[in-house]
Amino acid sequence: MEANGYVAALDIGTSEIKLVVGELLGGTLNILAEGCAPSAGVKRGAVVDIDKTVQAIKQAVEHAETSLGDQIRSVYVAIEGEHIQIAPCHGIASVKREDQEITDADVMEVINSAQVMRLPDEMSVIDVIPSSFTVDQQTGVVDPRGMLGYRLEMHGKMVTGSKTILHSIRRSIERAGLHLEGFILGNLALGMSAASVDEIDLGIGLVDVGHEKTTVSVFYRGDLVYSYILPVGGDHMTRDLVYKLNCKYQDAKVAKEEYGLALEEMADGTEGFSYTNINGEVAFEPQSEISYVLEARIEEMFTLMLNKVQKVGVPMLNGGYLLCGGAAALPGIQELATRIMGQKTRLYQPSSIGVRHPKYATAVGVLKYVLMSDHHVSKSQLEKPEVRYETLNTKQEPTDTHVGENEYETDQESKKGFSRLMEKLFGV
Fold first, then answer.
1. How far is residue 262's CA from residue 51's CA, in Å, rounded to a whole number?
2. Contacts for 304-310 with beta carbons within 8 Å, 24 or more apart?
3. 143-160, pLDDT tens digit by residue?
4. For the chain, which terminal residue's Cβ has fewer other Cβ atoms within 10 angstroms, N or C?
């Protein structure tokens, strides 16, 4: 966290780099500045050109610093993508004090002990998110601090990611002149900040429609239980129009953003897009035809997601669905999603002035997650550098992440209370 009390959150997207700076005043998030720059060095959440990514980060930072009137020195970074994996984990530690009273140090030791496990060679631990504790024989403990015991256990989730991708992101941030405070799981932070406690408890699907991918995350009984990445996003909608209109990519992008609708029936019969096709001929495309192409792609996308969600095992998403992401700003997409999903769907966009656009949802989610959790210490300072990881040459489907059925079928009340406690303690 910055010395003067504000926090900066960075979202490194394929289309744009978003930076949001804010502070917490009286329990309310106050956005102080935002910065945005075109991203040319990122593909589907992975840095493919460090130099271009560094320049984009610098542009976003300079934009935000102009509004902030101060220098931004450190950032929290939203991490997501096909390389992210989430799995159950378990840690065990002995209580060190002679009087056997459990302290913060014991809690951190048992969290760190969960990281000593077998991992694929190319993977690295990003975070450990506790769910509940066991003190000796007492299970379902929310806060073990102050209790007496000899043996402390922790049940939770481990978030891992590609060493190569994480290194490239870290290197890009450092070369941009920033200190990396820590990685925050983007869909977890976004879900916890965008949805209410009741929605997360009853079940809700968070759909983040990005440039090259769409991420659907299912929250149920106060926990993230499933995450799936569909390799289709706003870029595919634009490219569909490139073939339909026989035009340049930039012209298709203008057609989508200025005339496109997610529902053909909403189109105005008198509206249309005039352009010059690749043959040099002046052409005109009605809004209805543009919207027809977009609706077909979006309908396919939502149908694929619905099929995945229905196989998760969650009885019912009573909270419905939340839409966010830059491509979710397309008019009519909320109505089309409701029609396909068969449940209420609403568009989420941050309410603060300057970031009232779905594309800022992840950055604001990370910002709110960090500030509301009183996350004053960076993850790098909490982690023990001497921890060693065993490796195992195994492969796991990166785009389809089940957290595990047992993770949300037991100790539910403890998990909800403890997740809030750990946010206060360590921001996890």
1. 36
2. 304/230, 304/232, 305/207, 305/214, 305/216, 305/228, 305/230, 306/340, 306/341, 306/342, 308/216, 308/228, 308/230, 308/400, 309/205, 309/216, 309/218, 309/226, 309/228
3. 899 999 999 999 988 899
4. N
The identity of residue 220, as a single letter, is Y
Q: Which of these, 208, 216, 176, 226, lies nearest to 75 by C-alpha position?
A: 176
pLDDT digits (tens, 9 = 90+) for 241-267: 999 999 999 999 999 999 999 999 999
**pTM reported for the whole predicted model:** 0.79
The enclosing H or E element of 218 equals strand 214-220
CA dist., res. 244 & res. 238, Å (int): 10
How many angstroms separate the CA atoms of 155 and 144, rounded?
13
- Which residue in this structure is represented by tokens 């102080």? 32
Residue 75, token pair as written in the block: 């950032």
Asked if 142 and 154 touch (Cβ cutoff 8 Å), the reply is no
| Beta-sheet strand order (sheet of 138-141) | 85-94, 151-162, 123-135, 138-141
Please, which pLDDT band fits residue 223 given cuts at 50, 70 and 90?
confident
